[in-house]
Amino acid sequence: MTESPELVTYRLEPALADRDDGTAMVAYLTLNDPDRRNALSDALLDQLSGLLRRAGSDSQVRVIVLTSSHPRIFSSGGNLDAFADDRPTITKYEGLNRFPNLFRTLTEIDKPIVCAANGDVLAGALGIALACDLIIAKSSIRLGCPEINVGAFPFMISALIFRATGRLIANELMMTGRLIDAFEAAAAGLVNKVVDDAEFDDTVRQWVAGIAVKSPLLLGMGKRALAATRDLPMDSALDYLQAQLALAFTTEDLAEGVRAFKEKRAPQWRNA
């Protein structure tokens, strides 16, 4: 029996360069199907979802980084061969839950997830990137939704694009299929930071290290609160957030953070 190819690789590295004691790790999940430009096949999506859950359940992992092994492409998006094959429609329909389930997984994991966009982020891959918490992009990459050019439409990822940028920009990307460079994407609110290619890896590590020293407990509470309140009316959101702040006051990490700040020392998080 032939083993399934490793379409997503998983490796752990110390999150802090000066602390290799295994207590603060970063999980790197690397899309690894370069011959097909990391097309989002069913097999790749299944492996990615499984590895995300693995990283999410590992108490030593502080930050998750999603990146690519391809020298120029993060991912070309959905598998076009699957769009036009002769499988029965019901068979294709059964697999449609992979994208929304992956987006939900990225949102529901308590740990910060950084998309290290080291290549072009296209079509469905743009949805994956936008479902992450932060996006760092190489200055040389392009982003966009070219699906309309092959007679498709980015139905599933439209929900994420509309939550990341304005309606008119979102419509332009989806209706014209135009690709934009990293700087235009940053101006539109689609990426956090654009970095020169030569400085990209170091910048990603710096961001990861900066996040890793924060309280894992409070980061997790904060991420859940953001997801829960993003689409609520203001009054409902404020009520929910007040309850979360009250809960935060009961944690040892909040008190420890204040003590460490006053004593000018690094905090010792309770659940680290």
Automatic annotation (TrEMBL):
Pfam families: ECH_1. GO terms for biological process: fatty acid beta-oxidation. One of its GO terms (molecular function) is enoyl-CoA hydratase activity. It catalyses: a 4-saturated-(3S)-3-hydroxyacyl-CoA = a (3E)-enoyl-CoA + H2O; a (3S)-3-hydroxyacyl-CoA = a (2E)-enoyl-CoA + H2O. Keywords: Lipid metabolism, Lyase. InterPro entries: ClpP/crotonase-like_dom_sf (IPR029045), Enoyl-CoA_hydra/iso (IPR001753), Enoyl-CoA_hydra_C (IPR014748). Coiled coil: none annotated. It comes from the Bacteria. CDD domains: crotonase-like. Belongs to the enoyl-CoA hydratase/isomerase family. This is Enoyl-CoA hydratase. The lineage of its organism: Bacteria, Bacillati, Actinomycetota, Actinomycetes, Mycobacteriales.
